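Revision sheet: structure tokens.
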Amino acid sequence: MARLLSLNVGLPRDVAWQGRTVHTGIWKAPVDGPRMVRRLNVDGDGQGDVAGHGGEHRAVFVYQDDSYRYWQDQLGRTDLAYGQFGENFTVDGLADAEVCIGDRYRIGSALLEVTQPRVTCYRLGIRLNEPEMAALLVKHGRPGFYFRVIEEGQAEAGDEITQEAAGPEQMSVFEINALLYAPGHPRDRLEHALRIPALSSGWRHSFEALLAQQRRDGATTGNPGLVAASGPPPAWRGFRAFRVSRKVRESDNVTSLVLEPTDGQPVAAALPGQFVVLQLGPAAAPALMRSYSLSGEPSTACYRLSVKQEAHGVASAYIAEELKAGDVVHASAPRGGFTLRQGERPVVLLSAGIGVTPVLAMLHALAAEASTRDIWWLHGIRNGREHPFATEARGLLDALAHHHSHICYSAPAPGDRPNVDFDTAGHLDIRVLQALDIPHDSDFYICGPASFMSDLTSGLATSGVTADRIHTELFGARPSLTPGIARSPQMPPHLPVGPPGPGPNVSFARSGLNVRWSRSYGSLLELAEACDIPVRWSCRTGVCHNCETGLVAGTVSYRPDPIDAPADGNVLICCSRPEGDIVVDL
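Predicted:
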């Protein structure tokens, strides 16, 4: 008979770690007597990072006494005490290989249902003073599991554990865990897992991503269940030489470059919405590295990209003032996952400022295929002098059977004509969209400043648009995801302190930094942090899946030697070290 050996609780605390303060609830300690097990928690317990831990499907974490004994042997430790793995219930029995997702158990007067294996984060390594502990739990197949509370009730150490129902499909915690992390991901087992109603949403989304990958192209390499897809792999590694065939002034502050390959060979046609990494600058100066969205129609002969000149932008000033037709620059292959989806649903292209470039490429693609979809073109800009592509966009819209357009000028100039040059004086926001009565079943593509995108995204979600219909692209470095870490003032990205390292060159495309690798950094993540580059990470050891807490990933542009990365071009920067020059999309 399985038995509850220890009931452990603990409230979040601040812990000093590597010069930072971590807010964590990983510290649990046994308590005497009964405790109420409630829908979201055990009385007296709490989580420091509620985005990655806790919630209805992760209300109670269970770990086995057998695993304690296993880790004592593996780690050579004699100091492991119940609660040290962060579990609420330490149990005798209920092995991961025997308990199935959807199984229901009575412990005391509470009825509980198994929902998922534990996704272990870096904070367990802090608790045990074993930095690799999160990865070790995955490698050794001893994650433990979570309960959802079906009926609230009291439980205490010594209670017997009785099974009251068996989960459908009979897939154990061990098998579910391996299905995500081990190679292969058999399609039939993914389909079985997705038929389990009790499986939590994070794991469900990961398995759906794996299954979609297999249905799309049969691939079993890479792991979209762990890393959010960033589009198809680049068509070539590194950079190709391109000649500036034309340079066009689109507005007072936007310049377009048309680039043709110097070798005369065709280039890969970009998916509408993708970007390239551009390497440019005078020969005597360090190369400037920037990422720019493509703004023209898909072509195998040339690429067009458009750049806004910023007040203190070194690269944009170079493009606007020094670069000329006939000059040679170097560009990566197109990349990125902000691309136009196929289908019959209405398409809403929303942009502000220079965010117009990727959605203009989408408009070009729709016009080129004479799409019969309902197309909405909405753009916000300061005034007519700063309004690029106005005539071009109108011509593309006129070629479409079903189209709508709405232009907002936030500060119209005296010569700007209402209902001719623009439709609304003011900012493009959710109120404008609501007044236009745009169908909620549309696909919304949003690009512009971070506040513009976040406001529209939240407004659309509040209006009833589902998350899978909202697609966004952010210029510049993405905001950080640092769960559990106390916020500190954000510095702009910069070169790390000290002399350059002797290793390969690491180029952070969105942040515009080129840094020589040094073995003093444990991983690309540590290098990015030394440069104050905003990164998106969680576990720091490569085991989290993005639906749970957001694993860091970047797109590799050039990788001449093997690196610890999936085959789809993504590199997990939380645990990788470069063996050759690379470009990371951060």
